[in-house]
Amino acid sequence: MAASPAPPIRYQSSDEDSGRWIGFPFRAGDIVISTRSKSGTTWMQMICALLIFQTPDLPAPLRELSPWLDWLVNRQDEVWTRLDAQTHRRFIKTHTPLDGIPIVPEATYIVVARHPLDMAVSLYHQGDNLDRARMRELAGLPPLPEQGPRPNLHDWLVQWIEADTRPEGDMDSLPGVMHHLSDAWERRNEPNVVLVHYDELQADLDGQMRMLAARLGIEVDEPVWPSLVKAATFNEMQSRADDLTPDVGGIFRDRSRFFRTGRSGTASDVLSADELARYRARAAELVPADPLAWLDRSTTH
Predict the structure, then answer these.
(1) Given strand 31-35, what is the order of strands in its sheet?
(2) Residue 110 is inside which H or E element, if any?
(3) What does residue 166 show for φ and ψ, rounded to 5 degrees?
């Protein structure tokens, strides 16, 4: 008798709760986009939207077409009701690793992985653009005490590399990022799991979009492809920040700053050779060699 699958792990933070996936009514064809913060989430949502609607002129803002299911800023019943009302193929955002989500054969799960140092640099800069008091207000949480000044980027990165936290409560930590990758790597050969590298999207957007269309069973007429690929480029998405950013209730101070640079390798401008070596040693403690080699394919770190 086959063993029952392990129940999903519960991931919780001040603004996320993966428990919202419990009992979620999946449909055949659903797409779940599972990424770490600042690792290509909005980019993959846009790619899926372009493949599904096959036009750059989306019928609604991206945050409405592809809601973040486990974000406490949005009420669970409202998110479920919105998804239930959708008649197009659904594509749902989450930052929860796959071991925290029900895995059903009728859905496809896309995991985008980005080099952790690139993700961390982007996360640091996004912190300056977030109105955290507004986020807590929307999530129904009390205000935090007045905080002191943030460390500079260098000091923050060094602290981030060394932090020893549990992924279940700190998904954007280095242990959290590596756990997300390791879990997806173990599932990469499953027919409904697609593992995508952020740098491959940068290097060959057309090819990666065609691969995703094939994995999702979506056919696109050849004359349509150039407009879809152009709409998924960084510059085009940056120019449409009002419609594409995941800004609900005014949590961003400036929507245009959400798309900062999209570049890889920026941590090398901040950290010393010894500090980069310490990152590599720490990463090797957290993830097996094969997925680490796949993740760390850039020579800029």
Answers:
(1) 91-94, 31-35, 108-113, 193-197
(2) strand 108-113
(3) -90, 130
The string of pLDDT tens digits covering residues 277-293 is 999 999 999 999 999 99
What's the CA gap between 107 and 92, in Å, rounded?
11
Name residue 76's amino acid: Q
Nearest CA to 294 out of 221, 209, 197 is that of 197
The DSSP string of 246-275 is ---SS-BS-GGGGS----S-GGGGTS-HHH
Q: Which two tokens stand for residue 2?
A: 């086959």
Domain ranges, ordered by start, for the chain: 18-295
Q: Per-residue pLDDT tens for 195-209?
A: 999 999 999 999 999
For tokens 């592809």, the residue is: 66
Indicate the residue type of 199: D
Strand segments, DSSP code E, in 28-75 are 31-35
C-alpha dist (Å) from residue 126 to 38, 61, 84, 120, 271: 9, 20, 31, 10, 19
Asked if 48 and 233 count as a contact pair (C-beta separation under 8 A), the reply is: no
Rounded Cα gap, residues 120 and 292, in angstroms: 16
Taking residue 29's Cβ as centre, other Cβ atoms within 10 Å add up to 16
Q: Residues near 234 by Cβ (< 8 Å), separated by ≥ 6? A: 259, 262
Active site residue 301: no
CATH code at 18-295: 3.40.50.300
One-letter amino acid at 162 equals: E
The helix (run of H) or strand (run of E) holding residue 288 is: none
- SS3 label, residue 180: helix
Cβ-contact 298, 115 below 8 angstroms: yes
Cα gap 17→168, rounded to integer Å: 10
Which candidate in 88, 95, 197, 301 is catalytic?
95
Q: What is the pLDDT of residues 7-64, one digit of tens each?
A: 899 999 888 899 999 999 999 999 999 999 889 999 999 999 999 999 999 999 999 9
